[in-house]
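JOB MANIFEST
job_type = single_chain_structure
chain_count = 1
residues = 267
[input]
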Amino acid sequence: MLTQPLLDKLSALGLRGFRAALEEQFEIPHYAELAFEERLGLLIDIECTRRADNRLQRHIRSAHFALPATIEDLDLSVRRGLKRAHVLELAQSAWVRRQLNILILGATGTGKTYLTCALGNAACRANYSVRYERTSRLLQTIELAHADGSYAKLLRSLARTKLLIFDAWLRDPLTRSQARDLLEVLDDRYGHAATIVATQIPVADWHPVYRCSVHGTVPNELGRYSQISDPTLADAILDRLIHNAYRLELQGVSMRKTHSRLPATVD
């Protein structure tokens, strides 16, 4: 068979990695010393690697991560409150396959978003679909979906995503409509897909905050919520999140302060 028609057929079959590797074998005499099976094995390995790399990049692009974070770049020092072995185990993404959740807690600036994106990136490497969402913006997207009739389609898309990340969870008060929408999303995912929630609010305070935002008993320090009476809604949301979740609690000073590019001031 002539060389060019063979290369054209490989391109037509979408075997671009195979074709590039074969062209390299034609150009380098050293490959002629290898047995046919060895040369074929090398070509197949390169094609498989190319496809895996392309698949990973598609997953990463579709996730829309806030930061280009990876597990390898995480600061796993003891001062941050993270157990190295535990984080590295979670990075294997077996919990995604088991449809479990992760709660990432910590004060503002402690690196919650970076950690969520790093775990999301690890899930992409394990060939899981991932979607990163800032909670307030997802709620805006859902509101628009209600208006244009695409709500059911959006719910199906969220349900199919193997790992959904909610960042800045409970940062803003919820209306009853928003709480119902979140419950719809979590109902579809419970027992079927994995979820990460990142928040600066301790889990012990979630229920009071939900009760304030969703059905309106307002403590003085949170006096900004309207009166809405639906006591079961908050319970249902919490029940689907916290009982099958790992918890990671970040400690330390703000990473933004630590990595500030401003020069230190002299008193």
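[summary]
The chain has two domains: 3-61, 64-258.
The radius of gyration is 24 Å.
exit_status = 0
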